[in-house]
Amino acid sequence: MPVLVLNSSLQPLSVIPERRLIVLLSKNKVTFIDEKVRALIEESIEARRLELERPVIVQLLANVRIPRVALQPTRSNILLRDEETCQYCGKRSRELTLDHIIPRSRGGQSTWENLVACCKHCNGKKGNRLLKEVNMHLLHQPRPLSQEYAGFFLLRYPKLREAYETFLLSAQEGSEGITASA
C-alpha cells in the first residue's frame, strides 16, 4: 500500500511505505485527508494487519521546506517522462533504451531535449544518423522534467496520482462553493 505524503500546503512530498506511516502517526506528525481511510487504517492497526488496497493520502501537520534541485536527465527520469513508450513507434515496454536525437558522434549532448526513450528496433534502425536521414519522426517533443511539477514521482503510482487529482478537484470545488456563498 503506497502512502502519499503531502506538505501542509498540500504539495506532494514523497511516497512512503506503510511502516513509515505508522511511525508518523505514532509521533502525531500527519493527519488523514480522508476520514474513511483514517478509520480503516486505525482498524487495521488495532488488528495488527495493514492490508489496504486503497491509496492513502496524509498531510504533514508542520510545513517542510523543500530545496530546489535541478532534476538530471537520468535513464529512469527519461523513461518516467516518456511513460515507458518508444518515442518513434509508440511501443510500450520496460526494455527500452535511450536514444540521442542528435547522435553524440555528431555533437549531440545528453540533455533533456536530446534524449528519448526508444525500443531496440527503432534504436538500431536510427543508429547514429539524424531523424530526417532515416525518415523517422518523434511522437512528442522532448522536454525537461522540472521540479515545478511537484511530485513527478506520482507518475510511478497511477492509483495514487488518480486519488491525489480527485482530492485536488474536490478541494477546489469546496473552495469555489465557499467563495460563491461569501
UniProtKB/TrEMBL annotation:
Q: Which residues form the HNH nuclease domain?
A: 73-124
Q: Which Gene3D superfamilies match?
A: 1.10.30.50
Report keywords, A-Z.
Endonuclease, Hydrolase, Nuclease
Q: Which GO terms of the molecular function aspect are on file? A: endonuclease activity
Give the protein name, as stated in the record: HNH endonuclease
One matching Pfam family: HNH_5
